[in-house]
Amino acid sequence: MADPQVLVVGAGPTGMTAAIELKRAGMDVRIIDKADHLARYSQALVVQARTLEQFQRYGLAAKAIDRGRKLREARFFSEGKEIVHFTLDRTESRYPYALLIPQSETEKLLNEFMESLGVKTERGVELVALGTDAEVRANLRHPGGATEEIAPRWLIGCDGAHSTVREKTGTAFEGGGVGLSFFLGDCEVEGPDVVHDELSIHVHQGDLVFMGRLSERVVRVIVALREQQTSEENRDLTIEDFQRAVDRIGVRVKITAAEWMTPFRVSDRQAKHYRIGSVFLAGDASHIHSPVGGQGMNTGIQDAANLAWKLAAVAHGANERLLDSYEEERGEVGKALLRFTERGLQLATVSNPILERVRDALADHLDSATGAAHSDRLHLGDGNSIPRIFNRCRLRGRRASARGRSPSRSSSPKRRKSIDTPRRVD
Ligand SMILES: Cc1cc2nc3c(=O)[nH]c(=O)nc-3n(C[C@H](O)[C@H](O)[C@H](O)COP(=O)(O)OP(=O)(O)OC[C@H]3O[C@@H](n4cnc5c(N)ncnc54)[C@H](O)[C@@H]3O)c2cc1C
Questions:
Q1: Is residue 195 within 8 Å of 321, Cβ to Cβ?
Q2: CA dihedral 31, 34, 35, 36 (to 10 degrees)
Q3: What pLDDT is attached to residue 365?
Q4: CB of 281 within 8 A of CB of 157?
Q5: Structure pTM?
Q6: CB of 14 within 8 A of CB of 300?
Q7: The pLDDT of residue 261 is above 70
Q8: For residue 282, which atom of ligand 1 is closest to its CA?
Q9: Residue 360 has what pLDDT?
Q10: How far is ligand 1, taken at its centre, from the CA of residue 36, in Å?
Q11: Distance CA 209, CA 79 (A)
């Protein structure tokens, strides 16, 4: 096959967006992925307003909205009392909400659109070696073991948290783990604390439960515990494990079935460089962080859009220095994002009782303390921005919804469906 102008390594949401934008700009692009299928799990749940605006350019926004659920408010509970109520309806966008939609659906939409443009992911094809001396030389291994060496003008590493591109270019991934154990489940749930159209976060002595509704039937539940997982807890999760964790935090819900459960680890890390000559890093290959704020996938999609038009402009004669602005702009977004997610998670999981009380009393300042600007977005100069997750943060005048602690539960329903549990080891 001829050398393409751009080789995109990895066909997750970031890679597909890069391929879409490049193709729309008239570029010759190949996209490969070592996996032989699209994402099977829901993983990222939140599509932010800015991403919907980007999807509108592809004619995908209405389809995404049809398949998702609009999220307009979020509630934060500490020790069983509601202390903050966020609303998202002031976002300056034609989409004044966040959309809850499983990543597998988002990827399906992007894939359909990319294929309609004539770009198809070469599946089962893995980047195994990369030379960047005089020119980019990429070694690909095809299914069956055949190898191919190609020399694209540019290469974009959209190959996720364990990026081969990042490793082969010797790019440091700076940062570390957050010291919490995370469990994720897409569950059927009942009880007084079940979410409806809102999102809820419950904290108790440094532990946290997050709930957001995926469908009429299924609720995404994420639990973060300060206790480190032991090897015993690293076995496949059961509903009983989940129920124990939720009970410990005092959330009054009963988990009756689960479609998917997985433990995962979280790190806050950022690549030291996003541009290494003619090679670029985007999405999880360049930044990973906790799911606080639902920004990971969105940021990758916006990285790809920022980079692709610049590559197309340079291919059509613009000064190559334009490409430096990718790292300058998206590196700053990544930095702000890590700061925001790191502080948000620290605030939510404070375990010192005095600090907990201070946090709860100062809850009305939560958004400025997490580093979010008081405008709707953190603007970064090129039209890209981090949409603020919560546009209005208001302390409840009285803690009127204080409730008693949850009774302990003994129910331990059987897991309905057993699905393998991929682990994110960052
Ligand atoms: C359990 C879990 C829960 C999550 N929850 C959330 C959430 O609630 N909110 C949120 O915003 N984010 C969440 N995330 C993160 C979100 O899924 C990522 O931010 C998003 O998938 C990043 O997209 P990406 O395209 O950059 O990378 P990925 O989706 O990781 O895609 C990378 C692709 O590259 C391919 N690849 C890797 N190496 C090679 C190679 N050498 N050659 C060819 N192909 C290769 C892989 O097969 C993969 O398809 C979660 C992640 C996990 C694992």
A1: no
A2: 70
A3: 59
A4: yes
A5: 0.84
A6: yes
A7: yes
A8: 26
A9: 67
A10: 15
A11: 12
Angle between helices 296-315 and 49-57 (to 10 degrees): 40
Q: Which atom of ligand 1 is nearest to the CA of 285?
A: 26
How far, in Å, from the CA of 191 to the mean position of ligand 1?
32
Q: What would the pLDDT profile of 310-355 be if each residue is shown by its tens digit?
A: 999 999 999 999 999 999 999 999 999 888 887 777 777 766 777 7
**Of residues 361 and 143, more confidently modeled:** 143
In the reported structure, the alpha carbon of residue 270 is separated from the centroid of ligand 1 by a whole-number distance in angstroms of 15
| Residue 232, Cβ density class (10 Å: 0-12 exposed, 13-18 middle, ≥19 buried) | exposed
Query: Which residues are bridge partners to 392 per DSSP?
Result: 87
Q: What does the block give as tokens for 340?
A: 């925001």
**pLDDT single digits (tens) 352-383:** 777 777 766 666 555 444 434 333 344 333 33
Which residues contact ligand 1 via a Cβ below 6 A? Answer: 9-15, 32-35, 43-46, 103, 126-127, 158-160, 164, 184, 262, 264, 283-284, 291, 294-297, 300, 424
Tokens representing residue 98 in the block? 């966040």
Least confident of 47-56, 58-67, 228-237, 253-262: 228-237
Question: Ligand 1 centroid to 161 CA: how many Å?
Answer: 7
**84: helix, strand or coil:** strand
64: Cβ–Cβ under 8 A, 6 or more apart, which residues?
47, 52, 55, 99, 101, 105, 106, 109
- Distance between CA 33 and CA 35 in Å, rounded? 5
Atom 52 of ligand 1, nearest CA residue: 43
3-state secondary structure of 45: coil
* Domains of the chain, CATH where assigned: 6-176+267-395 (3.50.50.60), 179-264 (3.30.70.2450)
Looking at residue 399, its pLDDT comes to 32
- The residue with greater pLDDT, 173 or 262, is 173
Which range among 217-221, 279-283, 416-420 has the greatest average pLDDT?
Answer: 279-283
Residue 31's SS3 state is strand
Ligand 1 atom with least separation from CA of 33: 44
